[in-house]
Input
Amino acid sequence: MTTIKPFRGVRYNLQKIPDLSAVVSQPHDRVESLKDKYYDLSPYNVIRLIKGREQPGDGEHANVYSRARDTYHTWLQEGILVRDQAPALYILRQTFRLPDGSLRARQGLIAAMELTRFDEGIVLPHERTLSGSRRDRLNLLRSVATNFSSVFILYPGGSINNLVASITEQPPAWEARELLEHEVLQQFWVVTEPEVIAAVAKEMAPRRNLIIADGHHRYETSLAYRDEMRAKYPEAPPNVGFNYRSVALVSMDDPGLVILPTHRLVHADRRMSGAETLEQAKEYFEVVPVESRAELESKLKAAQPLPRPCFGFYGGTTAVLTLRNAEVMDQLVPDRSIEWRRLDVAVLHELFIEQVLGIDKQAVADHEPVEFLRDAQAGYEAVDQGKAEFLLLMNPTRLEQVQACSAAGERMPQKSTDFYPKVISGLVALPAGVEERL
Output
């Protein structure tokens, strides 16, 4: 059973922060290169809570986590942040244009969701997490006992948006644009009507096989925190705050649900030229040279969906690589499901990056020789300027592939999906401590 509840959210005080564009940010895992810009936007930007700066002399008692806690409580005392008087659900609508110029809108419902283990089959993951990021998020949650960012979760079926249509037909509580994805219009509504909240909770209750689109580290961290707190407070009631996690629920049928490709930029110091690399790749791939970037992108786009995985190569020479024989993946990773073995990204990592380039999994996980890019143009320029060796151009993973892998209990390779736009941080916070009741 999927249990969601309204909650008394902590939000920026519009009387003191009238322009929320200056205080919202990307999720914590996308802010590192923009941290200084977020700091400069406003002394109240949420970056100080979700991913603060380290300082000389940081240690056990004074660190980014203790500063986040102190900053949070100071902002509450100063009225920068205020707590809603009544429990509410919250709606986030994001309107944006795709590269082809078409306009899309995606709508999510933010609620407190009861945490469940993945083996219970209610919420499913689709990507692997890294221990360092989990540890970082857990330290923050232990210190502040508050969810500042919502986990982005997909649910099967539709109709939830229809249940809140009477709310979204009204003017939003606020509008904003975030620094990195500035082209996206962010609109926000507050739902306090008891009959609407009850209808939404009832509609969500029987749903299973919800999939985490973004925020795996945060969800797994909340599970770990819940288990710690249950051991520490065994008499706490079921509706205690640490049993819940703030989530942004989006229908898998939402016409604005978009997955962008994540390209791979290879920095490893290699002795082989691009032509030599492609010659070696012919052991596993059909290599079709192309004359230009435009032709590469056109052929790659036309190749989806194909039964055989493929990707593009740019580096001294330009080509489309298509897997010759799927049986090689069956032999190389027989313990993985067929859904996983047919993913473009799985083939790219297992055969090209590891077998052809000789880069092992740990190096990729550490982001040492391989950089993950949303913007292909930046990759082309890096190769042209000699700052990287190869750009590996990807098609986007399809939603049905995400669903198939999740249903099979599989975790996709790192950075297999990029759901666009991100669910931003700084919208509404959910207190998750032992004294909180939902």
User: Anything to note?
Assistant: The chain has a mean pLDDT of 93. Residues 162 and 168 are 10 Å apart (CA to CA). The first helix runs from residue 35 to 41. Residues 4-258+420-431 form one domain.
